[in-house]
Amino acid sequence: MRNISRLLVFKIGGTAKLPAEPALADLPLDPPPSTAAPEVIAVGQVKYGRYCAVCHAPGAVGSTVLPDLRRAGSLESAAAWSAVVHDGVLKNNGMASFKGSLSKEEIEAIRAYVISRANADKAIEAGRKVARR
Ligand code: HEC
Question: Which residue's alpha carbon is nearest to atom 41 within ligand 1?
């Protein structure tokens, strides 16, 4: 789900009605294959829970407001992920650098964890589609 930002202003006796919600198709769930070792993914899971879950939702399922990391473009490459999480290229948008708290290896382990979560959810979605046929 994506956030739908709208400003509502109320007037006593007003009769206006809310316009219909715009149809927002979910971004596709199309992660890179999960190839990291289980120990790496386990480290990523612990660090994700400690540093990321508060904003990006526990279990990386995506909050309704902040980016769903399973669907993030920067999941595709270690460099793009590191630019955001280590270097803080999105810090002016509210996504701080974590270089003071996490090593580069831990940041990459978190990416491995999110990739693994995304692949697990993609498998569930694929199963649902088969079941519906
Ligand atoms: C205080 C809240 C907060 C925390 C904690 C946080 N983030 Fe973010 N994150 C954000 C916000 C806000 C954005 C959206 C920035 C934007 O719109 O450009 C974001 C965006 C991102 C993006 C870019 C998504 C994309 O579409 O490419 C990545 C990757 C990311 N965060 C990873 C992480 C990781 C990994 C952690 C834990 C180490 C983390 N974030 C912790 C708030 C947070």
Answer: 52
Q: 129 Cβ partners below 8 Å, 6+ apart? A: none
- The backbone region for 40, taken as left when phi is positive above 0, alpha when psi lies in -120 to 50, beta otherwise, is alpha
As for ligand 1, residues whose beta carbon falls within 6 Å of it are 51-52, 54-56, 66-67, 69, 72-74, 81, 84-85, 90, 93-95, 98, 110
CA dist 70 and 122 (Å) reads 10
Please name the amino acid found at residue 129.
Answer: K
Distance 56 CA to ligand 1 centre (A): 7
pLDDT tens-digit series, residues 62-104? 666 788 899 888 999 999 999 999 999 999 999 999 999 999 9
| Contact assessment for residue 103 and residue 7, using Cβ atoms and an 8 Å cutoff | no
Substitution site in 2, 90, 98 for ligand 1 pocket (most atoms within 8 Å of beta carbon): 90
Q: In the chain, what's the furthest Cα-to-Cα distance?
A: 62
